[in-house]
Amino acid sequence: MQSESSLKREFMKKWLMGLQKCSSSEEKMSLLERKKAIKLSADLAMASTRNSNSYTTKFSWSHGLISEASKDTETGFLAKRILGPGQPELLSQAHLGSSINDETRRSARIGSRTKVGIVHKKKKKKIVSTEIQSVKNGYKVRARAIAKRLVKKRTQILKGLVPGGEAMDENSLIKEALDYIVSLRAQVDVMHHVANSPQLLNHNKCFDFGVRNYMEI
Questions:
Q1: Angle subtended at Cα 208 by Cα 202 and Cα 214, rounded to the nearest 5 degrees
Q2: Which of 68, 103, 111, 187 has a CA-to-CA distance to 96 between 20 and 30 Å?
Q3: CB 12 within 8 A of CB 192
Q4: Where is the IBH1-like N-terminal domain positioned along the sequence (predicted)?
């Protein structure tokens, strides 16, 4: 696996090429269109970098990002030009309220049965103890069910954040998400470096495209 510095260098090279293709277009772009083109070129450069032959490990998120950009009606044409040929709340308030009420009612019944057990014979105490244990087991089952529900919900959210995540299993999703985060961090570092480097802005015509303005927004 290449170092982070190698990742950044390869990303910058591909990003510059993408920006040059955008800036060489005869079409005039508005500020919003330029912003979209800069962001798209950066994303595609990062995806193609992670999908290049320089890396032995391939990641599905890079394929997903390129595929999504190519199929989108707004970015498809620009993506082809750059690449060239070839939440929800975890639990609703209503559900939470219902669960709290159930717990309150169960607690009240437990308290009532415990008092009865104290007043009556030892056999009654044994019955109450059994019922309490049953309720505790019920709590454990419910807690596990809620935990599974939360994990499933958060997994779905993560799948929506990682390109191509909907088709990934849970094990692959974690690995893909971690690599995607590393790539995004490298992307941001390079973009900030370029935007704050006057020598790069002055010697590369592609940066007349508005990179500095994009990073300041």
A1: 110
A2: 111
A3: no
A4: 5-72
Q: How far is CA 85 from CA 36, 81, 132, 181, 203, in A?
A: 21, 8, 70, 28, 27
Distance of alpha carbon 30 from alpha carbon 25, whole angstroms: 13
Q: Burial letters for 6-45: b for 16+ Cβ neighbours within 10 Å, e otherwise?
A: ebbebbbebbbbbbbbbbeeeeebeeeebebbbebbbbbb
Q: How far apart are alpha carbons 87 and 77 in whole angstroms?
A: 30
3-state secondary structure 128-170: HHHHHHHHHHHHHHHHHHHHHHHHHHHHHHHHHHCCCHHHCCH
Q: Which residues contact 115 (CB under 8 A, 6 or more apart)?
A: none
Report which DSSP code applies to 73.
Answer: T
Give the H or E element holding residue 178: helix 170-195
List, for residues 16-70, the tens digit of each pLDDT value: 888 877 776 656 777 787 888 888 888 988 988 887 766 656 788 988 888 888 8
C-alpha dihedral sign at 118, 119, 122, 125 = negative
CA 20 to chain centre: 30
How many C-beta neighbours within 10 Å does residue 203 have? 9
pLDDT band at 108 (very low <50, low <70, confident <90, very high): very low
Are 63 and 166 a contacting pair, CB within 8 Å? no
Task: Say how far apart CA 102 and CA 104 lie, in whole Å.
Answer: 5
- Give the C-alpha distances (Å, rounded to integers) separating 186 from 48, 190, 195: 14, 6, 14
Residue 104's pLDDT band (cuts 50, 70, 90): very low
